Each structure stands twice: as structure tokens, then as C-alpha cells.
């Protein structure tokens, strides 16, 4: 029986601390990020981890539910 071969996906993640200037500079600090899928060249700038996770999932060959089913 042949081995299942999944497509390769490589991502580059960059995170940095951003300061949003307002009346209270320290209150406006937050993380920002950028993710790039190297095979397609697509990128996403994000401020929310859920955005980044959704971007990465677009390139995955299966969903979490299917992976869990295969472990039964």
C-alpha cells in the first residue's frame, strides 16, 4: 500500500510590537504580524491571530475535524 503524500506548505511569520499614538501612548501598543505562503507568494498583514490561522488553513489539505476522525 502506498504512502500518503501531502503537498508541502512553507510559511514565513513576522511579528512586531506596534505603538498606536494617542493620548496615552502605552495604551495603544499591540502586536502586528505578517504571514507569507512561500509556494504561492500570497501574504497577509494581521493584528489578530485568528486572521493568521484562517490564512494558513486555506493552504491545508484537510480540516481539523478530518484529522481528528483519522485518529479514531
Provide structural commentary:
- The protein is α+β, with helices and mostly antiparallel strands.
- It contains two helices and three strands; from the N terminus they run E-E-E-H-H.
- The protein has a three-stranded antiparallel β-sheet with strand order 1-2-3, covered by helices on one side.
- The chain is elongated.
- The two termini are 20 Å apart.
- The relative contact order is 0.18.
Short description:
The protein has helices spanning 49-57, 64-70; strands spanning 11-19, 29-37, 43-46.
Contiguous runs where pLDDT drops below 50 for at least 5 residues: none
| Total number of strands | 3
Helix content: 10-25%
**H/E series, N to C?**
EEEHH
- Alpha carbon gyration radius: 17 Å
Derived structural class: alpha+beta
Largest sheet: 3 strands, antiparallel
Strand order within the widest sheet?
1-2-3
Write down the overall mean pLDDT.
80
State the end-to-end distance.
Answer: 20 Å
* Beta-strand content: 25-35%
Envelope shape? elongated
How many helical elements? 2
